[in-house]
Write a structure and sequence with these properties.
- The radius of gyration is 23 Å and the shape is elongated.
- The chain has 13 helices and 17 strands.
- With 398 residues, it is α/β, with parallel strands linked by helices.
- It has a six-stranded parallel beta sheet with strand order 5-6-4-1-7-8. Strands 11-10-9-15-16-17 form a six-stranded parallel beta sheet, sandwiched between helices.
């Protein structure tokens, strides 16, 4: 049974032709040489934008990009606006010069049905991250309805995600609704067995997930550099491998918890090691996980890849977040590629967290072969940990 979504959605409200709608999107995209380097997040917003255009709405979009401390031309949303215009076939998409102010209000008022105004980077406004009531009120003046479709920002109580909801009828967009439904179902009502694959560098970033899934999952597969905190916690030699010292005790506690849990916690059984962290380093496979001094573990080994793939193939639901190794360097990409390929062909429901996992799927041409690829990084992790998201809680109840 699908997880219940307790907030009003865009389906629940009538949008009249000519009505102004403020949409919080996630255009926090990477830029290179003044252009959008990856438009995945812009594409993810297109269904909501197209729906509002079909209804004849006048559309005002707002988003942050990066973490500027005030106005910074390098973080302007203009490249994202240009890319959006291209994706919409060259339609009327305008870039506002500021976040709020008289010129922005005039620009919003001049919009015709189906036209779009993109506000400047919300973090250029000093009150955004402080959830400033005055900024929230100015944003609300631009529209008659607020739609939050930026799941990746839903864990932030900012003026454009929370404050504005105090002034306008506020609903969830399709993307935010789908994210919350899908991720909630992973922990509350997954098809069994639930197999969770966690990688990345830091146990401290994932300990909330590890604790939650030790209570709810059937198998928890650990990879990435954070496995060395577990190995150190077991008293194994880790050589020159990256070890997060703060994570060692957390890993040790997780291992103790796993002993009394019905969830099987699996660690790598072999590794790819190298004598340096670069593509030309001397590397070799070791049939063990004890790393000699002068060497560092940079990927899971072939036996671990096979074992993990078998677990994934038998899953009713798979959740994967975090790479298995230094996949950016080809000699150490095999583990992450193997997990991506296993998830892509798994017969069950497959959900992949954002960030590096999404980048890996895109690199290996597998992004279209999973059930759900989350756009949220921190928001997804917090939701899966069982924490409430301010941007979701602030929306009108269904």
């Amino acid at each position: 049974m699908a997880a219940r979504f307790a907030k009003k959605t865009l389906r629940d409200v009538a949008v009249e032709p000519g009505q102004a709608v403020l949409v919080r999107v996630d255009f926090n995209v990477p830029l290179a040489d003044g252009e959008v380097a990856d438009d995945t997040r812009i594409r993810a917003a297109l269904p909501t934008i197209e729906l509002l255009r079909e209804r004849g709405a006048r559309i005002v979009l707002c988003s942050h990009l990066g973490r500027p401390k005030g106005q910074d031309p390098a973080t302007s949303l203009a490249p994202a606006t240009d890319r959006l215009r291209e994706l919409l076939g060259g339609g009327p998409v305008y870039q506002a010069p500021e976040v709020v102010g008289p010129e922005v209000r005039r620009g919003a008022a001049r919009l015709d049905q189906g036209e779009i105004l993109v506000l400047e980077n919300t973090r250029w406004a000093p009150g955004e991250t402080k959830n400033d009531p005055a900024l929230a009120a100015e944003l609300a003046e631009l529209a008659d309805l607020y739609v939050d479709d930026a799941f990746a920002a839903a864990h932030r109580a900012h003026a454009s995600t929370v404050g504005v909801t105090e002034h306008l009828p506020s609903v969830a967009g399709p993307l935010l609704e789908r994210e919350v439904r899908t991720l909630t179902e992973v922990v509350e009502d997954p098809a069994r067995p639930l197999v969770v694959v966690l990688g990345g560098a830091k146990v401290t970033d994932k300990i909330g997930l590890i604790d939650r899934f030790l209570d709810t999952a059937d198998s928890l597969l650990i990879g990435g550099a954070m496995c060395f905190s577990f190995f150190r916690g077991q008293g194994r030699s880790t050589g020159d491998s990256l070890v997060e010292e703060e994570g060692v005790e957390l890993a040790r506690r997780a291992l103790l918890k796993a002993e009394d849990s019905s969830c099987r916690l699996l660690l790598p059984s072999d590794l790819v090691v190298a004598d340096g962290f670069h593509a030309r380093a001397a590397s070799r496979e070791i049939d063990d996980v004890s790393v000699e001094p002068g060497w560092m573990g940079l990927d899971i080994g072939p036996r671990t890849r096979s074992d993990y793939a078998i677990e994934i193939a038998a899953a009713g639901t798979v959740f994967w977040n975090g790479p298995m190794g230094a996949f950016e360097l080809e000699p150490f990409a095999a583990g992450t590629r193997a997990i991506g390929e296993a998830v892509a062909v798994a017969p069950g429901v497959t959900v992949v967290g954002g960030g590096d996992s999404a980048a890996a799927l895109s690199r290996f041409g597998l992004a279209e072969r999973v059930t759900h690829l989350s756009t949220g990084g921190g928001a997804a992790l917090e939701l899966l940990e069982g924490r409430s998201l301010p941007g979701v809680e602030a929306l009108d109840d269904a």
